[in-house]
């Protein structure tokens, strides 16, 4: 008989504090109640949230990536618009978008060269390195989950 692995649906979210202006990158399994706890709509704006099986790993990844921007003794970050757009770009391609503020919808363009030759650099493609990392994290999570069962 085959054992089944139960994967709990989880979400990674991005909020902006309307009072102090910081950003929160968090996770939840119950978005509606979590957003109510965080006073979304009155004290915070929801920028977006995404469903992903590796939501915990993604949160750890972003927290480590932006550790130098963390507000001391809190779970909030002083992020730039470029940081915010980077989180959105990664999650837009890696997760299932449940909500995204239209002002932050990624603008993918086709003005990049179709082929990058050896030694040629294109900084606009660097965000895809995040996707590769996320793919590896998801694969590792899957393998760990499969080996437990």
Verbal overview:
The chain is α+β, with helices and mostly antiparallel strands. The chain has one domain (11-148). 36% of the residues lie in helices and 19% in strands. The chain has four helices and five strands; from the N terminus they run ββαβαβαβα. It has helices spanning 31-37, 55-65, 81-94, 128-148, and strands at 11-17, 23-28, 44-51, 76-77, 96-100. The chain has a five-stranded antiparallel β-sheet, with helices on both faces. A hairpin with a 5-residue loop joins strand 1 (11-17) and strand 2.
Strand content: 15-25%
H/E series, N to C?
Answer: EEHEHEHEH
Main beta-sheet annotation = 5 strands, antiparallel
Radius of gyration, taken over Cα atoms and rounded to an integer in Å: 17 Å
Going by helix content, strand content and strand pairing, the class is alpha+beta
The number of helical elements comes to: 4
Supply the number of structural domains: 1
Q: How many extended strands?
A: 5
Question: Spans with pLDDT under 50 lasting ≥5 residues?
Answer: 109-130
Kindly report how far apart the N and C termini lie: 12 Å
Shape: globular
What topology, given as strand order, has the largest sheet?
4-2-1-3-5
Portion of residues in helices?
Answer: 25-40%
Overall mean pLDDT: 80
Please give the structural blueprint.
Elements: E1 11-17, E2 23-28, H1 31-37, E3 44-51, H2 55-65, E4 76-77, H3 81-94, E5 96-100, H4 128-148
Antiparallel strand pairs: 1-2, 1-3, 2-4, 3-5
């Amino acid at each position: 008989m085959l054992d089944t692995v139960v994967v709990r649906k989880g979400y990674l979210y991005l909020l902006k504090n309307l009072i102090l202006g910081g950003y929160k990158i968090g996770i939840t399994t119950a978005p509606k109640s979590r957003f109510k706890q965080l006073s979304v709509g009155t004290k915070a704006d929801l920028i977006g949230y995404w469903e992903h099986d590796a939501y915990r790993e993604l949160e750890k990844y972003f927290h480590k990536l932006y550790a130098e921007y963390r507000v001391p003794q809190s779970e909030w970050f002083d992020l730039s618009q470029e940081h915010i757009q980077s989180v959105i770009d990664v999650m837009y391609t890696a997760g299932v978008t449940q909500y995204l503020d239209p002002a932050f919808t990624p603008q993918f363009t086709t003005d990049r060269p179709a082929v990058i030759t050896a030694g040629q650099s294109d900084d606009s493609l660097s965000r895809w390195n995040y996707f590769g990392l996320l793919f590896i994290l998801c694969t590792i999570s899957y393998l760990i989950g499969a080996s437990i069962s």
